[in-house]
Amino acid sequence: MRIGLIGTGRIGAFHAEALSRHAEVTSLVVADADPARAASVAERTGATAVPGTGEIFRTGVDAVVIASATASHSGLIGRAARAGLPAFCEKPVAADLAGTLAALREAEAAGTPLQIGFMRRFDAGYTAARARLRSGLLGRLHTVRAITADPAPPPAEYLPLSGGLFRDCLVHDFDMLRWVTGQEIVEVYATGSDAGPPMFREAGDVDTAAAVLTLDGGALATATAARLNGAGYDVRMEFAGELDQISVGLSDRTPITSTEPDGPPPARRPWPGFLERFAPAYEAELDAFIRVVRGEAENPCDGREALTALRIAEACELSRRERRRVSLEEIPAG
Questions:
Q1: Which fold has domain 121-277+309-330?
Q2: Prediction pTM value
Q3: Which of 167, 224, 248, 325 could in theory staple to 237 by disulfide, Cβ–Cβ 3.0 to 4.6 A?
């Protein structure tokens, strides 16, 4: 199979390494807005670099992987659809709801597969939590607690392009809430703090956020995010039911210290970032995409799934701005 990779930044370079090792990938073509960066990745992975992203669609590839800047996603999804090519795209589909809906309509009209990169669906911990919860071992689910915390903030120039903390970061937790529990989020109340570095206030963003979410099965969830968690990269999710309680992300690499005299020791090697924490999941989602392209598997995360997660993030951002509860019915779905 011939794969075209658009975007060779941090996550794109990681995808290039994974695709170059995949047994079903016979050739890999890469492109980037920075041709030198694409050439460097090609040299490391044995791929072929082409001078511009548009060239990818003239190389006879069988499918494309989109890992470029967010602003380009919607247009590239449309271009892949018009070329009749299956596409894998890193989240988000677009920076806003209008762009997301436009891209999804184009892909759906073409009938081409579009898989969105919510890699946590392929993480062993979340997968095990989903199976245990769906088995009934926890009894009635009443509480979910989600945490996502970055060890250091992103570059200042990235913040105005990110969509904000709810859309850029907590959107993964919103997807996991739905995917693991099988329940829909019907109402949110969210807030945020910009008390950290001035760059967050200048971008109109927050560096810390919290949301309370009501699920249609009656459970309540909290989701918190922070951009400045110096202890390390921390992603956890706890599920509490009437019969039992389980946790995802709790290991000897979780960057938290217990103050109990007989508690576990601090992590000797806390997770430094998302690529290290979710490396196997990133590889697994690309393997799933290749099986989708080959007609061997159903799409594990299509564009409509990504739209639902974005609608939850939009509701949280609206709640933060207007300081009120927001029903998901207020956010357009199509």
A1: Dihydrodipicolinate Reductase; domain 2 (3.30.360)
A2: 0.95
A3: 248
